[in-house]
Structures are given as C-alpha cells and as structure tokens.
Amino acid sequence: DVKVTQSSRYLVKRTGEKVFLECVQDMDHENMFWYRQDPGLGLRLIYFSYDVKMKEKGDIPEGYSVSREKKERFSLILESASTNQTSMYLCASSPSPAGSGNTQYFGPGTRLTVL
Amino acid sequence: KQEVTQIPAALSVPEGENLVLNCSFTDSAIYNLQWFRQDPGKGLTSLLLIQSSQREQTSGRLNASLDKSSGRSTLYIAASQPGDSATYLCAVNSGYALNFGKGTSLLVTP
Which residues of A touch B31 (CB under 8 A)? Predict the structure, then answer.
C-alpha cells in the first residue's frame, strides 16, 4: 500500500515562528503536493513539485515556501507564521505526470493552530 | 480557472436509502475525475477515479458516472449504512493538481 506520512497530526505555534511541515511518501512518486483545507473554502493548492528541487506555485502560495531535496520528502515552510495560516494541511503524492490518470494519495493531515 | 461545485452541501438520510451526490465542473478539458471520502479530522481516501474517456466506474455499493461534455458527475451510493457517514469530495484533474469541490457532508441515521 502507498503510504504518505506527515510529521505531526496536531501542531500549535506562536505568531512569527518559523514552522516546518514534513511529508514523506514511500512509493517513489514523482509528484508531491501541499494543500490547505478550510471550512467553506475547501481544499486549495499551495505548492507542488514534479521532481527533486523543482517546485511550482499553486493557487495560494503567499506566506509559504517549499523544499524538495529528496524524492520522497516534501517540506512546507511558513517563514513567519500568522493567525490566518491556522488550518488543516494535507500532503499528497502521485506516481506520474499530469494526464496519466493516476490518483493522488493523501496523508492524514496536520492541523496547525497559530496563536 | 476550473470551478467545481457539489450539491447538496449536506444530506441526511435513513439507513438503507439509495442516494445520489452531484458534482459539476466548468471546463470539460479534464484528464480524470475522482471521488474522495473524508472522515472528520482525517485525510482523504480515494473511492473512485473515472478517466476522461470513461462513462462510469463501480466499486461495491458505489457507482460514479461522468458526462464530460455537460461537465457533470454523480456518485450513487446504494443501500446506505451509518458507516457511510462522512464528507464526500469531488476533484477534477485538469493538469498537475486537483481542483476540489467543497464537498457533501453525508449523515446516515440508523
């Protein structure tokens, strides 16, 4: 079974802190994604990566950066956390380029609260 | 930009009923469409994936259809059970990432 793991299920941070959310997949997938999920807004794409050291902005990249130094690991970084970044963060991976028809596999999510 | 809409936003049915969840999208140039299930506080579990060239997919009590030209998909759940209670999300793949609807929250009462 494909497994996508996220470093924390729950995280509480202070405004202004630097926050790292880690995601690891064990199936050698090329593509990895970070979404945030908010009530009434649904899931929105923050960043994605289609290869090591490659990244593309999604719909809401402001306030975030990402790092992909190894194929299996994709990190989301909040340089200076703010209260409006309180959300559920979901990581996903998929095994092939766009158009192949393969599904995305999601991690369990990290619920981040910024005080 | 692809817009995905799900109707209804919430649904409550008694156990045993058959039900239909609806999803519509604005741009018919898609690679595939997926239905996901999300339990409270948890991640997403893929239920069914329909390729753009397909009309429907079935898994157990679930059947999903796709009409790409009209921008619509339905998820049919037969003989609903309390364990089906969850949020169901429709997602359209038009490129690298998925565009999600806001979901239908389903409650099946015993």
Answer: 98-101
